[in-house]
Amino acid sequence: MERKAGERKYREVADDLRRRVNAGEFNEGRRKLPSERDLVQEYKATTTSAMTIRQALGVLRDEGLVESRVGSGWYVAEWRPIVRNALERLFPDRWTAARSMWEVDIEGRDMNVEDLRVQFAAAPGEVARALGVGEEEKVWQRNRRYVVDGVPVMRAVSFIPDEYARNTRITEGDTGEGGVYARLREAGHGPVAFQEQVRCRLATAAEVEDLGLANGAPVVEQYRKAMREDGCVVEVARMILDASKFLLVYDFPR
Amino acid sequence: MERKAGERKYREVADDLRRRVNAGEFNEGRRKLPSERDLVQEYKATTTSAMTIRQALGVLRDEGLVESRVGSGWYVAEWRPIVRNALERLFPDRWTAARSMWEVDIEGRDMNVEDLRVQFAAAPGEVARALGVGEEEKVWQRNRRYVVDGVPVMRAVSFIPDEYARNTRITEGDTGEGGVYARLREAGHGPVAFQEQVRCRLATAAEVEDLGLANGAPVVEQYRKAMREDGCVVEVARMILDASKFLLVYDFPR
DNA sequence: GAGTGGTCTAGACCACATT
DNA sequence: ATGTGGTCTAGACCACTCA
Question: Which residues of chain B make contact with A239, given a CB cutoff of 8 A?
């Protein structure tokens, strides 16, 4: 590896390491890379500083190629996403399984609710507006975190106006068979149309803490509105997903 | 600002800077923050190193709160997303405008094709599989970049098997009114069902280059399959979006 | 207890933007 | 010409993992 003036060393190291990872050099056993200190030795023709090696490893982490475990080392990463199919979730009857582009276990793994909190409190401004309630008006909030294989992957909050939730199990911890939508349906407010909005950005410090992410990890911020026959919004849900763990699928059948 | 052993200085600086940005301290004029060197002075009670200040600024950039311009400085960032509505794009007739959660200019800004390249070549493995063609088989590839206000925001490649594209303007630079789907429809291969897959991750070095992103910026990787009446996939599109510039909207009407 | 990634220091030079 | 963010050096200590 040669170096000319004005080039960026960390990028050269990253390029070479990427080549080695993709060539399968570290695929045996626990798929562990050399330690940062060892890499400084290996690349001493290019750089002599641990910071530069770290920066190069950061590039590969950004690309999803490797991951770091503190006190342990750097490892080749694997992408095994949780498939999240909107049509399947919202209209189970309309959905017919279709193949994904990526090679994934389409079955999906079990997602468990971890830490449900039901509150009756004012919602954030944009949620209140979407629900058509006053900014100060209290609504039911069902706040929970989802875990897969013991790892938190998503934070979700559902907002339901009192008008639709009162005298139903929506205000309780356990909503019973079929969940919130089944209870809304029984109360005559069954949602029939939905809108999902998806935005992708890097995690805030609070989200890093909540979901156990790395600094600078991307999250998906998702809003869902559920509408009754007459167009009234009966539920707004706000979700923060660990982006590295999900594949979102949207089917538009005939 | 005090500091105890074991805490992370860059996070303390980030927290304080976030508070100042949100309080509107830098909202006048060009919304410029103090230079890194000035910030080292301002926070010399916490840290004495420029690297630590940079790390703190990196946290706020990750959160989308500020952005850096080389040779110029750090600025308060603004999120003005391009709204990308799947139903509107795929089924203009089924779509009825619905309000967004975020305060955005729903009209959307003009997106222009910049640099169209039409090729006849073998497609990547997963695309070939989705199209149901052999790995070696050549397909038509329409590769282009989209720009908004002169800034590149998306790279898109459409893959169409020769079987559907030959003897149509799909193989030419200009596909004519209505684009690829209109030509497919005329040829009796009109797509009637679609699937979109969305994944979010950090940009690779090549994508950073192509879209003019910052290192460690998130992108949206999107695949779309377009299906004919009989379920045959007539087009696969692969898109890389600058995640900071888009809001994806998925409508599910009754 | 040895090894690891994460954070931090106190500087330096570069390419680029603005004046 | 000056100031800016981006990169780099050559170390150091810390919290953590693992054998």
Answer: none
